User: Fold this.
Amino acid sequence: MSIQVFGMPVSRGVAIGRAVLVASSRVDVAHYFVAADRVEAEIERLRAAREAVAAELSALKRDMPAEAPPELAGLLDVHLMLLHDETLAGATKVWIRERHYNAEWALSAQLEVLARQFDEMEDEYLRERKADVEQVVERLLRDLARSVPGKAGGVPAPVAGAGQFGGEEPLVLVANDVAPADMIQFKRSVFTGFVTDVGGRTSHTAIVARSMDIPAVVGAREASRLIRQDDWLVIDGDAGVVIVNPSPIVLEEYRFRQRQSELERARLNRLRYTPAVTLDGQPVELLANIELPDDAAAAVEAGAVGVGLFRSEFLFMNRNGDLPDEDEQFEAYRAAVVAMQGLPVTIRTVDIGADKPLDRMSPQELRHEHALNPALGLRAIRWSLSEPGMFRQQLRAMLRASAFGKVRILVPMVAHLSEVRLTKESLARAKQQLDDAGRAYGRVEVGAMIEVPAAAVMIQRFLDEFDFVSIGTNDLIQYTLAIDRADEAVSHLYDPWHPAVLQLIAATIARANASSRGVSVCGEMAGDAAFTDLLLAMGLRSFSMHPARIASIKQRVLRADTRRLAASLDAVLSADDPARQATAVFSAFTSR
Assistant:
């Protein structure tokens, strides 16, 4: 029977595919696809974990004191029986062989199937046996966590296409939420859409889905409970609706809409090598945001004229607490610089915290792990300055990469002049260490992220200290409006059109232009065509976004007349409803 699930539309378009559920677990579970030649090795990992847990349970039963209640021995027998039951062990192997799930994901997927079966049982005693299955699976997951393959404790890269893991049917990811580390694993994989129970327009899942140009619906509440593995789904990213097991008529209607979207993408793709110049002759720089060195190739292919934001923190994730050393970081930065073929690469120093925690936490960080508001805690440059050895190591790696092309260093979440001073001291020390070691490096520009209201208010002082600034609109909006953008209860109050936000952005751009300092926007607003005319009117000439968004923003730039847009800027900034005012005045000045 077809049902509809409603959520928040965060990435436009239509996705059709089979549901792949990522179940929640009390144990952290890595989710990745294994290559075809690794399937049997993955099944061997599962077998070894099962034997280890069986030995552990048998030892517990053997060493049980004589006075222990007999029910306890019976419980261990039940767990041993479940451990070898084909509905758990055999079915888990099927997930690995047919879907190429890693063993942990396969186990959690099968647990989800079994849990629903137990929930539907009428007998109360049998329903309660679900807890036994959960406990057995958690023992297996804990053992598997000790045998994760890959370099430096990391995980293998995801496979590239559906045909590599048992079929050509498109897949849609359904989860309570998707962690940033998992999104990195999924970003080049097979999913054509995302559905999550929680989240808002600026949750990490929403941002990545939008940047990848993949339809997504978040905040769908009961989606992961109502949707079953392998259900056919339609994601309507325009309306925020997920249709479960649609009728043939509905399916055909959405397939038609899919074809129309694909034609539009093909048309936009023809603009990728067209220079981004407005109707009145203003050149506009369209840069790419990337997470990993391999993303640089996609940036060049999309027509980016450089990398405006390399999020270096993603090199630190999915590593089981083993942080990359200087040489590994250097190789990653160098690879991105070389791949950009002489175009500039702006590398942001590690920006961990809040929605992007690391696997390994120092004793100091452990005290902050359960802080009431991690977004206001030890994160970004604050964390880097609290770990001076790690920070200088990263700076040395960036400097060494600058010998192979144009590198710029970007410092996140700067709010205090003392942070500026300490950052410059760390950079000077890193340069001296390279000089002492006889290692080459080039000239680098250093910039600041303007994402804290204090930095926007003090913009002139920061412009005196830095070579350029980059406005991170996601956090700037969050901190200006005092809204946790990851909290769906207040996500409706997250408003990039808020007059206070627009005033801060406009003032920052104006001051930077007047001081002859480079200024760009690298947050979500840069890749949202609804804001292109407004940002051009403010005087912005450098936008940084995911490569998938460049063509649509370029189309908007090519149709814009910045002189006429700028003439109406004051009317928009002074309006009670800037979004409505912008639509009213800018649409008349933009060639369609």
